[in-house]
Amino acid sequence: MDMRLTPEQEKFREEVHDFIRKEATEELFREVRDREQNGPATRAFVHKLADKRWICPHWPEKYGGMGASHMQRFIITEEMSYTGVPGGGGTGAGMAGPVILKFGSDYLKEEYLPRIARGEIEFVLGYTEPNAGSDMANIDIRAVDKGDYFLLNGQKIFNTGSHPDKYHWLGARTSTEGPKHKGLSLFVVPMNLPGITIREFECQCNMTSHEVFYDDVKLPKRQLVGELNRGFYEIAMALDLERNFSTAGHQRLLEELTACAKETKRNGKALIEDPLVREKLAQLKIEVEVVKLLSYRVACLIDKGTVPNFESSQLKLYHSELGRRLTGFGMQLLGLYGPLKEGSKYAALEGDVEREYRAALLFTIGGGTSEIQRNIIAQRGLGMPRA
Amino acid sequence: MDFDLSEEQEMLRKAARDFLEKECLATLVRQMEDDEKGYSPDLWRKMAGMGWMGLLSPEKYGGSGMNFVDFAILLEEMGRALVPGPFLSTVLCGLAILSAGTEAQRREFLPKIAKGELIMALALTEASASFDPTKVAVRATPRGDNYVINGTKLFIGDAHVADYLLCVTRTKGGGGKEGITLFLVDGKSSGISYTALDTYASDKQFEVVFNKVAVPKGNMLGQLDGGYEMVQRLLEQGVVAECALILGLAYKVLEMSVEYSKERVQFGQPIGSFQAIQHRAADMSIDCDGSRFVTWQAAWKLSQGLSCALEASLAKGWVSDACRRVCDGGLQIHGGAGLMMEHDLQLYFRRGKAHELSFGDSTHHRQLVAQLGL
Lengths: 387, 374
Known about the structure:
The complex is a heterodimer of chains A (387) and B (374). Chain A is α+β, with helices and mostly antiparallel strands and 387 residues long. Chain A has helices at residues 7-23, 26-33, 40-51, 70-83, 90-103, 106-117, 231-242, 248-263, 275-303, 310-334, 352-363, 370-381; strands at residues 123-126, 142-145, 149-156, 167-173, 184-190, 196-203, 207-220, 224-225, 265-266, 269-270. In chain A, strand 9 (265-266) and strand 10 form a beta hairpin. Chain A starts with 6 loop residues before the first helix and ends in a 6-residue tail after the last helix. A four-stranded mixed beta sheet of chain B has the order 1-4-5-8, with helices on one face. In chain B, strands 2-3-7-6 form a four-stranded antiparallel beta sheet, with no helix packed on it. A two-stranded antiparallel ribbon of chain B has the order 9-10.
């Protein structure tokens, strides 16, 4: 047992920290706040990250990684999320890449992995459908084998970030025989193919999301990832490996709220002198500490060659629900100032609380709801019976 | 970072579990609730034989020189088995003697503790019910070769069987950090009286009245008026140890609840297949794992000889609440069975409440986290 980072890891953290301090410009932060994911400052920053091989550091060198440990990768993620700069990762580095690396053909590996690691291409997560949310095995978009190609028809929803320049990481039904989860396959689909239509919609959680319609879309067969009808298992494994959330964003917000409570006076007294405020901040500090340890545990498991499963769900569940409590407390602390948006002359913390409160709504729902995580923990972690 | 136990630590855990599954059954725990002494001398001797009392003592004092993480692992197993008796207070007082005692005091006390021949109780808390040493009011006044102690200590665990009490007194001023002095007080000294407190957990807690109790000056532990830091250190160790005990208790409750939910059939299905039950159990598992890591973090710092005031309070602030949630969840899953005195769950539920409050509840530790960490 050793409950601290090694000196080498601490040194690496310093290096990442210094890099961000040097390269993250005001313009970059403005683009992040305004959700300009393709802004020039963001592109330039991601390019520099790619030069360091820090987008997919744990991948083999030949695909653009540096053969780093997961802990190193986690350290990068922590530093990025603490400062709020874009990590250049997303679905490509986090979901598609690892599955291609493990199950993909040589063609897919060579075609996509280096470009993901260089931050040149982006993937869009394509699992959710109107009738396949928590029940992912119910995916119904069809991919029919037509000999030379697959013919795709159906609809996706909440495929956030969809754009013709990107690639769809698509879960589709390739068999209707047998149990539902044994008829799914994974595909890489260029989203500019004829027959694909994208519709945009806004969400209250600081997010623009998309519906994607497939109408007789012809997809070359080499775009199939791994084995036909094994998609469900490939997705599940990728989720387990990738549900490693950094808690540094929570840490940062808690520090901001604590500083705000020290500086803000009500009735002549600093907010932090109110025992109820102190108690709440202390409780949140305890919770941030515990979730940090849960996140390090998952990183350690991966580095030891174990595929975490219920451990990742514990982390995802607690992390996302803590996000709701933390931002909810931020609103309470600021009172009527809490909901003021950035730009208002009365907004506290540059509108961070309003923005973070909205953003936090996503995470107890997206990527597997809290309820699904609890099912996984109970059934896979504790061995409780299925209904 | 590494969350794995070493091979030796895994062996220690296994040995402790095997031993306690044989020697500390629920029937013994129940007997000890009604027993006047509250612990089994036979089990005590065997535990000493396993080397547990001297686990943290250096070899030259008859111990095995292991570290606080090892100790936490052992305590987790003891919490799991609800081992009754003065083990923790004896070891903690031994640690205070090791760090602050004179060589003569170490030689007198530590080998006896390691052999299981000496029991100790920590006499810190008073009517204020606070674990904050600045609140101590029991006075010790110099008279000739002695100090004379007057006042009442309250909620003192296993005081009635202690050969010696480690008594925290005030020797100067009316409050604050200065003027705290510790004494090793013979439990049979004239002027000490013990009155048992009847508690929910049936643990053995006492009111200890000191009426002109004379203690030789040579029994002072550490410096006159300078005991505050020593008590703080002792509390850090006590808090982390308490967390480790709770860990074992909480995991056992989770385990019992999951097992019960698989066996208990309602509406034609095991209740464990219902999401209402599964989701409670899932939250309990996060409470347990969170408790383990936050406790290990503090224990690891102690094992490295580092101060862990903040980490200890982060731990107890979490673990106390987690313990309550896990026990509440366990009770709900067990339903009526959890209420029956015949069922073992109630033993854990009641003991859980005692641990939750011991060495400071979560409110106390949140206050410390606010002071130390915000």
